[in-house]
Design brief:
Elements (H helix, E strand, L loop, with lengths): L14 H12 L5 E2 L7 H10 L11 E2 L12 H10 L9 E3 L2 H10 L4 E4 L15 E3 L4 H8 L12 H18 L5 H5 L9 H25 L11 H7 L6 H20 L3 H5 L1
Parallel strand pairs: 1-2, 3-4, 4-5
């Protein structure tokens, strides 16, 4: 609280960055502050204030700090975790950054359109999303406007590393988002025929254990595997778990998803093709 603020004189706000953030909110977009979560929340909020982008004035949907994130740059799972905390909105998500290694490459690997803030003029790799671009900060808004109508199907990640990043991000985001849930809220239902939060968490665990892992094993070990359908939605209803523990269900899901990821990470390319 005393030493960190002494760094403020070493920084200065950038008007074009302030203009960009103001325009993003004016046009109704969500914004996440994707700063490497190596600082606590207090320090990160101070850095935003130094940039004249106080979090109390600007309603950022996510600000990544080491209290609420599990991955760091340049892991693609860091960007997947941001998307997961945003709720995987059914609209185009983009990454705007100035660091090639930490911002641009991992976000592009996840399949996101990226805008590289740079004075360089080199051609972006062909593996990047075709709507990716580069240039000064002042060009970002016009770029966002041009790609706002990209169909969601064109931004779906295809690479193995991207799929693994998403599988990792789900339990990570769930762990962060459920830490503030009260016992009563775990059991609430929006509608009578819907799952409670606790039932949803247990459902995620059961599907990984009784469907996904078994299907992966079957595909790896059988030449022409028959994959039966699973009416997994009915399992919760039949098992009468009105009073089971939501946080425990999240823990069980994280453990089971970790087991599944370990299996997938050890596959050969041939096995992935299967």
């Amino acid at each position: 609280n005393e030493e960190f603020p002494k760094l403020k004189p070493l920084t200065q706000p950038r008007q074009e960055a302030i203009d960009l953030v103001q325009e993003i909110f004016r046009t109704g977009y969500q914004a996440a502050v994707a700063t490497n979560p190596l600082f606590p929340k207090l320090a990160t909020y101070q850095r935003l204030a130094w940039a004249e982008l106080n979090h109390q004035q600007y309603p950022f949907s996510v600000v990544t700090t080491y209290e609420n994130f599990h991955f760091c740059k340049p892991n693609p799972a860091y960007y997947a975790e941001i998307l997961a905390q945003l709720g995987w909105q059914h609209s185009t998500a983009v990454m705007i950054g100035n660091d090639w290694q930490d911002d641009i490459l991992p976000a592009a690997e996840l399949g996101l359109p990226v805008f590289w803030v740079t004075d360089e003029t080199r051609t972006l790799p062909g593996s990047f999303h075709p709507s990716s671009s580069q240039g000064p900060l002042k060009d970002v808004i016009s770029w966002i406007t041009r790609i706002a109508e990209i169909p969601e199907s064109e931004t779906q990640p295809q690479s193995i590393s991207a799929m693994l990043a998403i599988l990792k991000s789900t339990p990570a985001a769930l762990d962060s988002l459920t830490k503030i849930i009260s016992p009563a809220l775990w059991q609430q239902k929006q509608k009578e025929n819907q799952f409670s939060l606790a039932e949803n968490a247990y459902h995620l665990y059961e599907v990984d254990e009784d469907v996904n892992l078994l299907r992966i094993e079957k595909i790896l070990n059988e030449e022409n595997p028959f994959i039966p359908a699973a009416d997994s939605d009915s399992w919760i209803m039949k098992r009468n778990r009105e009073d089971f523990n939501g946080p425990l269900a999240v823990t069980k899901f994280i453990q089971k998803r970790t087991q599944m990821i370990q299996v997938l990470e050890n596959l050969t390319l041939e096995q992935w093709e299967r």
